[in-house]
Specification:
This protein has 371 residues and is α/β, with parallel strands linked by helices. 46% of the residues lie in helices and 19% in strands. The chain folds into two domains: 173 residues, Rossmann fold (3-Layer(aba) Sandwich); 179 residues, Dehydroquinate synthase-like, alpha domain (Up-down Bundle), CATH 1.20.1090.10. It contains 13 helices and eleven strands. A hairpin with a 2-residue loop joins strand 10 and strand 11. It binds nicotinamide-adenine-dinucleotide (NAD) and glycine (GLY).
């Protein structure tokens, strides 16, 4: 029996699905999924770490309801968001004779969700996808809203598709095995929701982060649901990122350059790039006169207090110089007509879309930050 879960509904004009959030969901996936299956067979794709922890438990549960279980185990880590792994995944699905009415299950963090989601969107011109996010980051962000994809040599997440899942199942019990560093990386995306549009949520996190970060399950469940509700409202208003959805990229234009510069290695996790990126976005907003220093300091203090990186100097490895950094930022998907558009802030909880960022000022600002 599922112990305790809540549902967030995603109602898009062309498609609806549910996000189930709570405890004890993993063992119930077969009974939840069974009524959705065309034939009694599922295709599960995961990474090595998650497979070692959860795959055999899940396969036994599928066997118990007589559902066939094909599985593919991919290497762990951001480097799997590549053409090579995408091709391997798609070819595997075809070799296993996936049919159009079958369902692919992405079991893992944001890397697996993004990669498998993209594979599901292109194999046989699209098969149904269920996201089973297993990291905090994927439960609060990447499994929801339909962005899927891989990295290009030129930059992060530059290849992909909008492809909504038919269901998201977020079992927060699985976060108990998540290493602290990955938990914190996901936490930075949680804080992002407060920073971009919800000062009160930021204050809640400022008060209760200790309980949340130390596996207080009620606090985690609350934060995951709150984050999903915030993201869903934004995605419903702007599914394909023609406006408001871009706010979810607060800190990311900076962070993506940092991830590329560290070669998508574990020198810098995605969420660590986001925490440094958010601080840079707040500081650059101050530099341009949009945000006062007190807000910058409060955000910086919060990230430091929980143990997240806030400074470019904390990155292990060499970074591009300021000019190269700005050039790399020009690969961002928010560049329009050759102009760089950025998500900046006026205060905690108030982000806005800033068009045509002054590149010279940005370069001087980055020079200062790197000194
Ligand atoms: P990840 O998928 O690499 O997972 C982090 C680590 O945790 C991996 O080593 C993984 O094997 C391990 N792991 C996963 N679940 C575990 C568990 N329950 N117990 C123990 N270990 C576990 O990384 P992530 O932080 O989940 O996701 C980062 C990715 O998400 C980035 O590629 C980023 O670009 C992407 N992202 C996408 C979106 C979107 O909207 N699509 C949004 C935000 C981030
Ligand atoms: N994580 C950003 C988005 O989904 O739009």
């Amino acid at each position: 029996m599922v112990k305790n879960f809540e549902t967030v509904n995603v109602k898009l004009p062309h498609h609806e699905y549910k996000i189930l959030i709570g405890s004890g969901l993993l063992d119930n996936i077969p009974s939840i999924v069974l009524p959705m299956l065309g034939r009694k067979k599922v295709f599960i794709i995961t990474d090595k770490t998650v497979a070692d922890l959860y795959l055999s438990r899940l396969s036994k549960k599928f066997a118990a309801v007589s559902v066939g279980f094909e599985h593919l185990i991919l290497p762990t880590g951001e480097k799997s968001k590549s053409w090579d792994t995408l091709s391997k995944t798609v070819e595997w699905l075809i070799k296993k004779q996936i049919e159009r009415d079958d369902i692919v299950i992405a079991l893992g963090g944001g890397v697996i969700g993004d990669l498998v989601g993209f594979a599901a969107s292109i194999v046989l011109r699209g098969v149904s996808l269920i996201q089973v996010p297993t990291t905090l980051l994927s439960q609060v962000d990447s499994s929801v809203g339909g962005k899927t994809g891989i990295n290009s040599v030129q930059g992060k997440n530059l290849i992909g598709a909008f492809y909504q899942p038919i269901l998201v199942i977020a079992d927060t019990d699985l976060l108990r095995t998540l290493p602290r560093r990955d938990f914190l990386s996901g936490y930075s995306e949680v804080v992002k929701y407060g920073l971009l549009g919800d000062h009160e949520f930021f204050l809640w996190l400022d008060s209760y982060n200790d309980l949340m970060l130390n596996n207080g399950s009620d606090y985690i469940n609350y934060a995951v649901k709150k984050a999903c509700l915030t993201k869903v409202n934004i995605v419903i208003a702007d599914e394909k990122e023609n406006g408001k959805r871009a706010l979810l990229n607060l800190g990311h234009t900076f962070g993506h350059v940092l991830e590329r510069s560290t070669n998508y290695s574990d020198k810098l996790l995605h969420g660590e790039g986001v925490s440094i990126g958010c601080i840079l976005a707040f500081k650059f907003s101050e530099e341009l006169g949009f945000c006062n220093h007190e807000h910058v300091q409060r955000v910086e203090r919060h990230f430091k207090q929980v143990g997240l990186k806030t400074n470019l100097n904390e990155i292990d490895g060499s970074l591009p110089n300021a000019e190269q950094f700005v050039n790399l930022m020009m690969n961002d998907k928010k560049v329009k007509n050759g102009f760089l558009n950025l998500i900046l802030v006026t205060e905690i909880g108030k982000a806005f879309y800033f068009e045509n960022a002054p590149l010279n000022k940005l370069k001087m600002f980055l020079q200062k930050e790197m000194a």
